[in-house]
Specification:
Elements lengths: L3 E4 L6 H12 L3 E3 H9 L3 H8 L1 H13 L8 E3 L4 H4 L2 H5 L3 E6 L2 H8 L12 H19 L2 E4 L5 H12 L1
Parallel strand pairs: 1-3, 1-4, 2-3, 4-5
Helix pairs in contact: 1-9, 2-4, 3-4, 7-8
The structure holds shikimate-3-phosphate.
Length: 165
């Protein structure tokens, strides 16, 4: 085995799947957003507000690159990891699973959440433009692509475990 690295857009299910999958496999979960908040003692929202996105990305990259690639952890990344870490560097950390969801589903799942990048007037337009930019990188980094729309957590985890066997 190696690390399982979950990538994908906000609302694609990385945190929920990561939590459930790590329990099923009996391994540690590294939740990147949590790691960033713990190491800076600030919330993601505070970092974006006080220090800006560029600063956030530097912390995100630094913490990600320091992850031990020899372990068997489940790593749940932030949706913007591909903005700052190359597909090659992501792949070096383990088996990369790209969790895919439709824009409609992403809008539903992220509604009412406090994601700084979605704090805009036209959420759908923002999601579509970010997706258009990021999709090629998610695809390039991915070893496996899993569609999450319309599936429950257990079946997504089973699918990943089958594919990683
Ligand atoms: C971001 C995604 C968020 C978080 C931050 C930036 C992004 O993580 O890291 O708000 O740029 O897509 P989730 O994908 O876990 O929501």
């Amino acid at each position: 085995m190696s690390n399982i690295v979950l990538i994908g857009f906000m609302g694609s299910g990385k945190s929920t799947v990561g939590s459930s999958l790590s329990k099923k496999l009996g391994v540690n979960l590294i939740e990147m957003d949590e790691l960033i908040e713990n190491s800076t003692k600030k919330t993601i929202v505070e970092i974006f507000e006080k220090n800006g996105e560029e600063h956030f990305r530097k912390i995100e990259k630094d913490l990600f690159l320091h992850i031990d690639e020899t372990k068997n952890n489940v790593i749940s990344t932030g949706g913007g990891i591909v903005e700052i870490v190359s597909p090659k560097e992501i792949k070096e950390k383990g088996t990369v699973i790209f969790l895919h969801a439709t824009t409609e589903e992403i809008i539903k799942r992220t509604k009412g959440s406090d994601r700084p990048l979605l704090n805009v007037q036209n959420v759908e337009e923002k999601i579509n433009s970010l997706l258009e930019k990021r999709l090629p990188f998610y695809e390039k980094a991915a070893d496996i692509i899993v569609q999450t729309t319309g599936k429950d957590i257990d079946s997504i985890c089973d699918e990943i475990m089958d594919l990683c066997r």
